[in-house]
Structure formats: C-alpha cells, structure tokens
Amino acid sequence: MNEKIVFDQLNKDVADQVHIRQTYKYFNGTERSKGLYDAAIKMGEEVLQEHKEGHNEPQAMVDLVDQAIYNSRKALNGQQTDKHSLHMQLARAGQFLRGQEFTGLPIKTQQYWEREVAKAHNIEVASNTDQTLANQTAIKVATMFDTMEQMRPQLMKEAAQQRAARAKRAIAAREKAEKERQKREAILEKQKALAEQAAKEHKKEEKKSHKQKKTGGLRGFWSFLSFHKS
C-alpha cells in the first residue's frame, strides 16, 4: 500500500512567499540570505508541480524541502528600513507645497514638485521600501530644494512672465465677453424694434379693416332703405 504523502505545510510555506518578500527581513536582507530562500522556494514549487503531474516524492523528501524553506526564512537577515531622513524631507516638502513661495513658481515647476513629492510619499508609506530606495528618495527630494534655490532667479522671471500672460489673456477674454454682450444687446434691441413696428402695423391694419367693415355696413343699410322706398 502506497504511503499517503501530505503536502499541506509545503503548500502553505510556498504560498507564503508573497508575504515574505514584502517584509524588511527579505528586501533588506543580504543577497546570500535572499538567494537561499529563493532556492528553497524553487525546490518546493518543483516538488508540488511533480505532485500535480502524478510523480510524488517520498514524505521524507517533502518534509526536507519544507524544512529548507523554514530554515532559509529564519535566516533572512534584513533590518527594518530607517525612513527618518525621507520622512524629514517629505515634511519639509509638504510645508513648502502649502506656502506662498510654491504658488509663486511657474506652473510646470509646481506640477513637477507635486508629482515627485507624491511619488516620494508612496515610497515612504510602502511596506516593502528597502533602505537603498529610502535613502535615494530622501536625497532626491533634498536635491530638488537645492536645484530650486540655484534656479530661483530664472524661475521667478518665468513665473512673472506667466502671470503677465495670464492677466493679458484674462483682459482679452473680458473684452471679448463685453463685445459679445453688446452684440447680443444690439441684436435684442433690433428684434424688439422690429417686433414693436410689426405690432404697430398690425394694429393699424386692424383699425383700417374695422373702419372698412363699418363703412361698408352703413352703405348696405342705406341701399336697403332706398330699394324699399322705390
């Protein structure tokens, strides 16, 4: 009688690799410790694939592979990511984005800052941000401040030009709107005058028609009397 092979624990440990790879123990671990874990997981996946195809390893081999996964997981030596520097730079950036100095920058520069700070914030809150990425992102935000300071005269000039252009467009838009309003009012006045003239003509025609009917009626009455007198 063939021995029943139990794969429950191996299935669980192989499936758990998604979670393990999101922990700082893995993503901040040394390449060797991560490599050992990856190799053990690969062996576990191969054993499970053979089981699906109907070629089972002995229970001792299944348990041995699962033990290798367990041991390599325990050997992951990553330290928790220190995000203090990134957090400080993002706090500085957040205060900057809420200030008048930021709103005085050119539109494209504002959009660049908002986009890059949002990306940095996502890296800060991500559970699997490694130390290298956290440090690089903090340096990038700090460099953005340094670059802005160096380009300040040029940025201020560009912002002033944009404000002047927006003001010019706003004046042109108001002038255009006023011309359109005057044009509409002129058309309405013309339509009103035509309507009043038409009403007068209609009233005049009604009076003329009424007078003609009245005159015609009297003429007919006198003709009726003349006919009977004769």
Poorly predicted runs = none
The SSE order reads HHHHHHHHHH
Domains, number: 2
Helix content: over 70%
Secondary structure category:
mainly alpha
Strands, count:
0
Straight-line distance between termini = 146 Å
Give the DSSP E fraction (strand runs of 2 or more residues).
under 5%
For the largest beta-sheet, the strand count, sense and barrel status come to:
none
Mean pLDDT: 88
* Count of alpha/pi helices: 10
Shape summary: elongated
Radius of gyration: 45 Å
Summarize this, please?
InterPro entries: Ig/albumin-bd_sf. The chain is an all-alpha fold and 230 residues long. It is 82% helix and 0% strand.
Textual characterization of the structure:
The protein has helices at 8-15, 17-20, 24-27, 31-52, 59-74, 84-97, 100-103, 107-125, 131-150, 152-229. The chain is mainly α and 230 residues long. The chain folds into 2 domains: 2-75, Single alpha-helices involved in coiled-coils or other helix-helix interfaces; 83-171. The longest helix is centred in the last third of the chain and has 78 residues, at 152-229. The N and C termini lie far apart (146 Å). Residues 192-215 are annotated as: Disordered.
Give keywords.
230 residues; mainly alpha; Single alpha-helices involved in coiled-coils or other helix-helix interfaces; 2 domains; 10 helices; 0% strand; elongated
Tell me the layout of helices and strands.
Blueprint: H1 8-15, H2 17-20, H3 24-27, H4 31-52, H5 59-74, H6 84-97, H7 100-103, H8 107-125, H9 131-150, H10 152-229
Helix pairs in contact: 1-4, 1-5, 4-5, 6-8, 6-9, 8-9
